[in-house]
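User: Hello! I'm new to structural biology and keep hearing that structure can be predicted from sequence alone. Could you demonstrate with MOSC domain-containing protein? Please show me the input and the output so I can see what each looks like.

Assistant: Of course. The first part below is the input, the amino acid sequence of MOSC domain-containing protein. The second part is the output, the predicted structure written as tokens.
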Amino acid sequence: MTVQPMTATVTAVSVSETHSFSKANRERIRLLAELGVEGDAHLGVTVRHRSRVAADPTQPNLRQVHLIHAELHDELRAQGLDVAAGQMGENVTTRGLDLLGLPRGTRLHLGGAAVVEVTGLRNPCAQLDSFRPGLLAAVLGRDAQGRLVRKAGVMGIVVAGGEVRPGDPIRVERPPEPYEALDRV
């Protein structure tokens, strides 16, 4: 029996006009080239994350789109932490794609037109524990060499705009080698 590899798909899309922790699920979102998610508090060419704005409001916004793999939600539920799509602040929830293993500069083609370039890892913060006690520790781990592993998704910038909906396929375009590992942004 031959097992077909899982196709990477979008399972949920979410947005919030305010700097709330969680984002509401939608039937669709629109990505705007060089800006981010239409109607989202993090939309913009320069940083929108409040602590980053306070440090330097002229920094480029490398966090226009937040993506989390649904497999993380599965893992968290198995640990007794009830977390669903959008609740950790992500705009796009995926399934069948190792987001954390992608190299920096990978382009994710979402649906028919939208393209997000992966810029780095989300750096989990204490707000996670305010949402669900124990969530911060659950999204941090150590690899075999003892290095910190951040599991709370990846961040990206919008290279090409378009609508994204649950069920849309995801096509992965890796950058030229040598690959650069993801780091927090």
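User: So the tokens describe the shape?

Assistant: Right, they're a compact way of writing down the 3D structure. Reading them back into a model, for example: The mean pLDDT is 94.
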